[in-house]
Amino acid sequence: MNAASNASPVYQASPGLWTLAWRRLIADRVAMVSMAVVGAFLLLTLASGTGLIAENWNDEIAVGYAPPSIFGKPDISGRTKMSKHDDGAAVNAYPGTVKDPLAEDIAELKATLGGGTSASPSANTALDTKDDIDLGDGLKVVDPIGPEMAEILATTRMSTEQSRAESLLFGADKWGHDVIKKVIKGSETSIFVGFAAALVATLIGTLLGAVSGYYGGWIDDLLNWFYSIFTAIPYLLLILAIAAVLNQKGVMTIVLILGLTGWTGIYRLVRAEYIKHSTREYVQAADAIGASNARRMFVHIFPNVSHISLVQLSVHTVGFIKSEVILSFLGFGVPVDKVSWGSMLGEAQNELILGYWWQLAAATIAMAILVTAFSMFTDALRDALDPKIK
Amino acid sequence: MNSTPLLSVRDLRVNFRMDKHTNFEALKGVSFDIPREQTVALVGESGSGKSVSSLAIMGLLPKENATVDPRSQVLYGGRDLLRLSGDEMRQLRGKEISMIFQDPMSSLNPVLSIGNQLNEILMLHMGLSARQAQERSIALLEEVGLPEPSRRINRYPFELSGGQQQRVMIAMAMACEPKLLIADEPTTALDVTIQKQIIELVDALRRKHGMAVLWISHDLAVVGEIADRVIVMRHGEIREEGTTRQIFESAKDRYTQALIQCRPPLDHRPLRLAVIDDFMADGTIMDSSKEEAVRGLSPNDEIVLEVKGLNKEFVSREGLFGKRVLRAVKDVSFTLPRGKTVGLVGESGSGKTTVGLTIMRLHEASSGEVLFMGQDLLKMSKKEQMPFKRRIQIIFQNPYASLNPRFVVGDILMEPMRIHGIGANDAEREKLARQLLERVGMPATSFGKYPHEFSGGQRQRVAVARALSMKPDVLICDESVSALDVSVQAQVLNMLQDLQEEFQMSYIFISHDLAVVKYISDEVIVMNQGEVVEIADSDEIYRNPQHAYTKKLLGSIPRGWHAH
Fold first, then answer.
1. Mind telling me how many Å the CA of A24 is from chain B's nearest CA?
2. Lowest mean pLDDT among A315-324, A330-339, B44-53, B303-312
């Protein structure tokens, strides 16, 4: 039925594929919500990457395993280990619970005896132990436990960081790191690894798929052979092998490992599309006007298959975020001075037996939200780019 | 005989919801009758609503976006088919009313043998046992003229030719001896010789079984061969209805007249084909359509292209060491003079398209020479050939496929200029591109639009403009007008003729449509199974064909009413 489209009014410039896809995406409520969530995560990553937030995640600001305060005032008794600023001094009390038992009496004494004679210090100041009031005739009001008390109070004051454990919404880890900051820093690593690795994999897969599908013949045979070998090796074994070859731990190593092993699915998809498109008439027409092979492959065919690469990029980002978690969990992941969701889960492995569940919960919740939102966004993206297969 | 019609369509209105805001009125109140034991033809161009009418009768309109007006009625045997439940309609479909479609390959299930598919219908609707069904199926296949039916019944659809597949479809439609057979463009995808056989088959079956046929087609000539009554539709309305004689001999409606005139006639050659606008605008048909054009070669013509002993073999691997060689083009030789047209006709599989692609080196030839102004294109390296590439251009059959859907028209036109360094800079190229658009009759606004926003005819104009941007000496038109509506076909043919005169281009015009080839060509080459069977002056070959195959081909051309 062409009649309907013929009747449409004439516009100067027409929206292209991407504009139309964007319009469909905006009209999709699920897409918008998931996009907002993913966007929030990206902003967080950016902020932490540039050092705006969570830069000092490595500071040990609380007692080890300070529980999350989000569920009410925590009971910290029994936690013996303090942060190392206190040289391991054992303090069984909690700030605010230490009280000078004589303070009130002494203050009262001072008030009644020294009233009017000298500038009376604040009666309520329990810490006001140094200036004993001289009553004349060698008589002094002396706080008998003053010096000891001052020492004790000073110790508790030194660990005011400890008091901040109360304000740690999600508690602290073994070393007293704030779990929220750790999750934020960890999402920076995980999201970067996910994106970068997906980019590497998509690039390799698309390029090889394009060459293979477009040229066919022995080039296709060779690449297919290469592909088959790659997919024949068990995934983890392959990852270990590459890790051994690269021989250094680091974020870029993980990116390379995941990127170099993850291109195979994209390769098959892109190759199939190129096989289909390379015999299409518009490509023949491009040949007829004298367009070179590279031009036909990338200027003519690529815009017609690029949506597949984009969707694959999105799918693989989710996949690689999960893969990174698994790798770090297994200990092949990020180095110790870095934190990722995977390394957090790895630590949580031992903590969970002791009942310290918050690190596990925080990392899992953050990952679950991002991965779900990203997957939904990927679906919406595919629908928007190819409304026919919906 | 019962004088009430078998089926009456009354005030049929169908609306399609395109998206949230736009509705498309596919049928705007259509009424017609199908008398018993007669053939009624619905004729119209794409978008006329002829197929929608048949789908509405069958109750096969897509439910999610089609709505039938409550006033509409389709009366059959005292019942209104539009009000029947899904179950009642299923009872009727196949048993009393059945349908055959344009593309038999996509209508048959590829993973079931044809026997399976036939037996299923017989067992379902007629309650036959498996054995009875098998016997009946063989009888049916015999009736529709499938050779060796008892052997072929176990074949799969892809093992049969297009014509044989359509015969199987007809057998399936006939299985329950329906009272009404709806045939939706059943011969459009077939070669002329097969088309003729199918038309004859359907007519014979109609007589034998006393059924009525609703024949849907875009081709008036085909309709003239088979129909008792003709209904001409346009834009969802009936323009004219009458007996076939009335329609062909004294059409009253201007659109009907235009449809008859737009087809290139076989007996003479007007300077310019009539187009629908001539008829619809003010009714004064341009005089030029009465003037005769002269076609034919003269010995002093300068030869632009010479093809010598061209061979093309396709080798397919079979098994581990086996090879199968298909000789698509066998020893083809011809010459192409400047400013003239050589027509290449043949049925599917004749190798005519391969000849065109091999000349352009879109396929590499197996052997032979293609001399362009004396230089052999086939022996050149890709680099040496580059300057020659722009001088031979091609326009493909399907304008929906030959334009890159991600390029706007401006880029489509400017790309070849960039590649071949035509025009000093992009600004100049844009100017040239806009001139080309104007030359092929496209509005200037189309520069920034994508191909999907245009109709088939407009897209083919863009494809022509792209070829023209390189100022070629030779233009290969590979079925370039075959996919277009008759009226649009006439416009594009007129334009091609004008351009040939203006730029002195030589055309190789490849088509299965003998009438079109006769009209536009100076010389005609008839191909069959990769071989040239006859080369002659175009008037001569139609007047006095020499080869048996040519005679058969010409005998199959539907000639409309006059042939009766």
1. 13
2. A330-339
Q: How far is residue B258's CA from residue A282's CA, in Å, rounded to a whole number?
A: 33
- Spatial distance between the Cα atoms of A263 and A198, rounded to a whole number of angstroms: 8
Residues of chain B with pLDDT under 50: 1, 287-288, 563-564
- Residue B369 has φ and ψ, to the nearest 5°, of -130, 145
CATH number, position A36 = 1.10.3720.10
Is residue A129 included in any domain, yes or no?
yes
Alpha carbon of A194: minimum distance to chain B alpha carbons (Å): 30
Return the pLDDT at A13: 65
Report if residue A302 sits inside a domain. Answer: yes
Tell me, what's the ipTM?
0.78
Distance from CA of B317 to the nearest CA of A (A): 12
Question: Considering its fold, how many domains does chain A have in total?
Answer: 2
In this predicted structure, what is the pLDDT of residue A90?
39
H or E element that contains B527 = strand B523-528
- Determine the Cα–Cα distance for residues B455 and B259; give it in Å rounded to an integer: 19
Mutate to test the interface with A, among B53, B406, B407, B409 (most CBs of A within 10 A): B406
According to DSSP, the β-strands at B23-34 and B7-17 are antiparallel
* C-beta of residue A82 within 8 angstroms of C-beta of residue A159: yes
Q: Select the residue of B22, B46, B406 nearest A17 (Cβ to Cβ).
A: B406
Q: Tell whether A262 and A133 lie within a shared domain.
A: no
Instruction: Quote the domain boundaries for residue A340.
Output: 17-58+178-385
Read off φ and ψ for residue B428, nearest 5 degrees.
-70, -40
Q: B85 CB contacts (<8 Å, ≥6 apart)?
A: none
pLDDT greater at residue B9 or residue A21: B9
**What percent of chain A has a predicted confidence (pLDDT) above 70?**
71
**What does pLDDT average to over chain A?**
76
Distance (Å, rounded) from C-alpha A195 to C-alpha A313?
8
Together in a domain, A147 and A277: no
Residues in Cβ contact with B390 at an 8 Å cutoff, skipping those fewer than 6 apart: A289, A290, B416, B420, B470, B471, B472
Tell me whether residue A75 is in a domain. no
Q: Are residues A110 and A219 in the same domain?
A: no
Quote helix, strand, coil % in chain B, to nearest 5: 40, 25, 35
Nearest alpha carbon to residue A340 among A355, A326, A356:
A326
CA angle A168, A169, A175 (to 5 degrees): 45
Instruction: Write out chain B residues lying below 8 Å of A7, CB-based.
Output: none
Is any Cβ of chain A less than 8 angstroms from the Cβ of B2? no
B126: its two tokens:
């007629």
A297 and A151 fall within a common domain: no
Indicate the range of A225-234, A345-354, B478-487 predicted with least confidence. Answer: A345-354
Q: What residues of chain B lie within 8 A of the CB of A11, using their CB?
A: 445, 448-449
Residues 6+ apart with CB under 8 A from A330: A346
**A250 and A378 fall within a common domain:** yes
Output B164 or A176, whichever has higher pLDDT.
Answer: B164
CB of B65 less than 8 A from some CB of A? no
A205 & A335 share domain: yes
Assess contact for B246 and B260: CB atoms under 8 A.
Answer: no
Residues A377 and A266 in one domain: yes
Q: How far apart are CA A276 and CA A272, in angstroms?
A: 6
CB proximity list for B512: less than 8 A, separation 6 or greater? B191, B192, B345, B346, B347, B348, B479, B482
This prediction's pTM: 0.76
Residue A22 lies inside a defined structural domain of this protein = yes
Kindly state whether residues A46 and A120 are assigned to the same domain.
no
CB B98 within 8 A of CB B170: no
Under the banding of pLDDT at 50, 70 and 90, the label for residue A248 is: confident
